[in-house]
Each structure stands twice: as C-alpha cells, then as structure tokens.
Amino acid sequence: MQSACSMRLAGMEDTAELLEKKQASEISKMSLEEALTLARAFSHYLNLMGVAEVHHRVVSVRIKELAVLYQSLNLQ
After folding, report:
1. Could you confirm whether the keyword Cytoplasm appears in this record (predicted)?
2. Which of 1, 2, 57, 71 is the most exposed place for a label (fewest CB within 10 A)?
3. Tens-place pLDDT, residues 15-74
C-alpha cells in the first residue's frame, strides 16, 4: 500500500486523505500501551534505517577509495 505522501505526489489527493483518516481512526482506537509499543517499534525501525544508511555510505566510500588505489597501482 502506498503512503499518503507518495499518493499526493502521484496526484491521488482524495485517496491520500482517506488513508490518513483511516490511519488516524486506527491510532485513536489504540490503548496507551499499544500506542507506546507502536511508537517504540517505529523508533527502532528508523534507528536501524539510519544504521543501514551509514553502513552503505561507508562501504560506498571504501569501494571508491579501493578503485582509485587500484587505478593508481595499474598506472605505475
């Protein structure tokens, strides 16, 4: 299922609004304990996404550095 944001970008304003209302309704029905569990899950998810992005950046930089080193060794 698309997010409301991506639906808006695709010009699906009415569908995005309906999705937001449905999500708000579901969240408002949650107990405080359920909402806290959901918030923690999203927090962990976003933290892991940040770790994955940093790892990807580090690996990408290392690959570029190795390519430059390999090229310089081949030119000598």
Report:
1. no
2. 1
3. 778 888 998 999 999 999 999 999 999 999 999 999 999 999 999 999 999 999 999 888
Domain ranges in the chain are: 1-30, 31-76
CA dihedral (68, 62, 60, 73) in degrees, to 10, reads 20
Distance in angstroms (rounded) separating the CA atoms of residues 40 and 30: 14
CA-CA distance, 27 to 42, in Å (whole number)? 14
Quote the CA–CA distance of 13 and 6 in Å, as a whole number.
10
Distance CA 11, CA 73 (A): 52
pTM: predicted TM-score of the whole model, two decimal places: 0.63
